[in-house]
C-alpha cells in the first residue's frame, strides 16, 4: 500500500507540474482492482482476498490524508478510486479532494455480481462538488450502465464528469460485452446526454511475472496489461476523444477549450 500511495503522489506532482488543475485516477486505483476474481476458485482466491483486505484504505486513514496533503501542496483537485475498508467490509469508493485538501467520499451502490464476491454495496450517495472550475462529479465503472443513477446525476448539472473505469486487463481484445468498446461507448453517451466534459481514466496493469492462459486454448492469453483506453470527451460530440498509447503510463494532460455557460444552464468548465 505504501508503494501505491507513493506512486499516486508522484503522479499528482507530475500532473500539477504539467499545468493540470485536476487529476483523475481509475476505479480502485488503490490498492488496485482484484483481477484474480475473474479467474478464481475458492481455495486459490482466499489468499488474494486476505492480502487485498489488508491493503485496503480507511476513509479517515493516513494514506488518504497523505494524498490530500499532496493535493493541497500542489493546488490541484484529485479524484481517486480506492478500496475502502470499514470494519469487516470493503467498498468500492471514490474520493474527491479539493485544492484545500478537503476529502469527500462516496461508495459504489451496486457492485456487479462478480465484484460482490469481494465488495459490499454502498448507499448510492452521489459524489458531486462545486469547484472554481465548475461542478465535478464521479461515477465508477458499471454505474454508468444504470439509467436511474445516470438520471440522478443529470439533475446535478455536472460540468466535468469523471468516469472512473478499473481497466480492461482480462479478455482485452476478445470482443466481450464488458470490454473497452462498450464502456467507452457509455462514457461517450454520458458526455452527450449530460452536456459535460468526461474524463475516463483507465488503469494500466503490470503483468510481469504472470502467465495466465486458457487451458482450452493454450495460445490465448487471459491476462493482459490493459491501457490505451483512457479518454477525455467533449460534450455533444460523438467521437471517442484522444487516447494514450496502449501500455503508456503516467498522466495525460489535456487543456479543454473555454466555453461560456450554455443557455440551458448547463455550464462548461471555466
What does this structure look like?
- InterPro entries: C-N_Hydrolase, C-N_Hydrolase_sf, Nitrilases_CHs.
- One of its GO terms (molecular function) is hydrolase activity.
- It comes from Nocardia asteroides NBRC 15531.
- This is CN hydrolase domain-containing protein.
- This protein has 270 residues and is α/β, with parallel strands linked by helices.
- It has a single domain, classed as Carbon-nitrogen hydrolase (Nitrilase/N-carbamoyl-D-aminoacid amidohydrolase, 4-Layer Sandwich), CATH 3.60.110.
- A five-stranded mixed β-sheet has the order 5-6-7-8-11, with helices on one face. A four-stranded mixed β-sheet has the order 1-2-3-4, with helices on one face.
Task: Give short descriptive properties of this protein.
single chain; 270 residues; alpha/beta; Nitrilase/N-carbamoyl-D-aminoacid amidohydrolase; five-stranded mixed beta sheet; four-stranded mixed beta sheet; 11 strands; 24% helix; 21% strand; globular; disordered C terminus
Amino acid at each position: 500500500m505504501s508503494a501505491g500511495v507513493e506512486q499516486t503522489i508522484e503522479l499528482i506532482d507530475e500532473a500539477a507540474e504539467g499545468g493540470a488543475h485536476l487529476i483523475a485516477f481509475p476505479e480502485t486505483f488503490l490498492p488496485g482492482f482484484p483481477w484474480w476474481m475473474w479467474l478464481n476458485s475458492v481455495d486459490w482466491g482466499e489468499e488474494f482476498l486476505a492480502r487485498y483486505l489488508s491493503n485496503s484504505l480507511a476513509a479517515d486513514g493516513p494514506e488518504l490524508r497523505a494524498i490530500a496533503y499532496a493535493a493541497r501542496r500542489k493546488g490541484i483537485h484529485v479524484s481517486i478510486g480506492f478500496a475502502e475498508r470499514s470494519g469487516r467490509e470493503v467498498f468500492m469508493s471514490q474520493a474527491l479532494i479539493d485544492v484545500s485538501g478537503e476529502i469527500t467520499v462516496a461508495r459504489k451502490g451496486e457492485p456487479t455480481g462478480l465484484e460482490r464476491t469481494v465488495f459490499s454495496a454502498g448507499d448510492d450517495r452521489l459524489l458531486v462538488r462545486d469547484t472554481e472550475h465548475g461542478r465535478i462529479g464521479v461515477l465508477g465503472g458499471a454505474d454508468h450502465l444504470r439509467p436511474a443513477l445516470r438520471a440522478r446525476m443529470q439533475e446535478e448539472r455536472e460540468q466535468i464528469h469523471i468516469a472512473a473505469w478499473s481497466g480492461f486487463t482480462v479478455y482485452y481484445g476478445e470482443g466481450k460485452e464488458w470490454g473497452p468498446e462498450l464502456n467507452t461507448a457509455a462514457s461517450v453517451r454520458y458526455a452527450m446526454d449530460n452536456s459535460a466534459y468526461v474524463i475516463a481514466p483507465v488503469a494500466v496493469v503490470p503483468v510481469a511475472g504472470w502467465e495466465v492462459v486458457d487451458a482450452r486454448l493454450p495460445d490465448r492469453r487471459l491476462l493482459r496489461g490493459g491501457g490505451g483506453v483512457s479518454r477525455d470527451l467533449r460534450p455533444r460530440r460523438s467521437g471517442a476523444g484522444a487516447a494514450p498509447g496502449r501500455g503508456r503510463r503516467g498522466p495525460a494532460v489535456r487543456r479543454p477549450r473555454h466555453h461560456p455557460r450554455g443557455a440551458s444552464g448547463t455550464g462548461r468548465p471555466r
